[in-house]
Amino acid sequence: MKWVFVLLFLASAVYVHRRGRVRHRLGRQLLDHSTFMAPLNVLMYAFSRVPTTPFIDDPARHFPELEPLREQWPQIRAEALRLREMQQIKAADGYTDVGFNSFFRRGWKRFYLKWYDEAHPSAAELCPQTTALLRRIPSVKAAMFTELPPGSELRPHRDPYAGSLRLHLGLDTPNDDGCFIEVDGQRYSWRDGQWTMFDETYIHSARNDTQGNRVILFCDVERPLRFAPVRALNRFVARHLIAAGASPNQEGDRTGGINRLFKYFYAVRLRAKALRERNQSLYYGLKYASVALAVAFIVWV
After folding, report:
1. Distance CA 184, CA 229 (A)
2. What gap in Å lies between CA 228 and CA 293, rounded to an integer?
3. How far is it, in rounded angstroms, from Cα 144 to Cα 273?
4. Which residues cross the membrane (predicted)?
5. Residue 289 confidence (pLDDT)
């Protein structure tokens, strides 16, 4: 029975790696979070009630409950722009956002509206209309305003878990093809008042090569799934694992357990980076040896 689970894990990991036209190098994929989540992700794909393509055409057809977001985009935009003027759309203060920490180095900024829970107190205070609107759409599990200033980029990456789909609603964008996201090699350029939905477990990247700023509403929407047990599993993972990635905007907002520990893990990561600068061969040798030891432990326990 143990070997059945090992083979299922390996088959799932290979499927996730080969899924789509754009792929990470094998060495990077071995240590990617999506590899460890592969069996769960394959389950989400297998029972998805919406297409498992990189982009989801016509989100309103699959998610009619989201239509008020597009209808009320000017009101949402007004709150986002007021936040930007207050300089509240920003990088995390310290190491409190493990999910997006690497993005901050290249200019990306965010203000959380909710994260698999009720609105942050700061969001309810500063964005009352948007948070009230989101409260009426329970399929939106997470939401934030994100900013991509001129010259910023997000390098190719994939999100680890397939239990949701990503919605982007343009609020204040350059309205220019030089500001875009690519998902599995397919490009979309943001426009004010228009939206797109995509599967964030495909490799994707973004760039703003214009002179204008880009502010959008960014939402994680629960993936519709066949069969109640699969839906229950997805909600269990979201509630007990993904929710632990909650990151604060201000003092008084909730910080999830993963982010409370992140500063300690990051201290170890800084030491690892220093080792890589001094001796790349030793760094990669230790890195892959740790993966081999983990696999051996799983196989022989």
Report:
1. 30
2. 37
3. 30
4. none
5. 76
pLDDT band per the 50, 70, 90 thresholds, residue 291: low
Give Cα separations from 171 to 81, 119, 200 (angstroms): 9, 20, 20
pTM of this prediction exceeds 0.70: yes
Q: Are 193 and 73 in contact (CB under 8 A)?
A: yes
b/e per residue, 224-261, with b = 16+ CB within 10 A?
A: ebeeeebbebbeebbeebbbbbbbbbeeebebbebbee
Report the C-alpha gap between 225 and 77 in whole angstroms.
31
Residue 21 CB contacts under 8 Å (≥ 6 apart), including other chains? 184, 185
CA proximity to 120, closest of 90, 94, 142, 89: 142
Euclidean distance between CA atoms 277 and 29, whole angstroms? 21
> Measured between alpha carbons, how far is 255 from 253 in angstroms, rounded to an integer?
7
Q: Are 247 and 255 in contact (CB under 8 A)?
A: yes
Interhelix angle for 38-46 vs 228-240, to 10°?
A: 140
CATH class of segment(s) 1-301: mainly beta
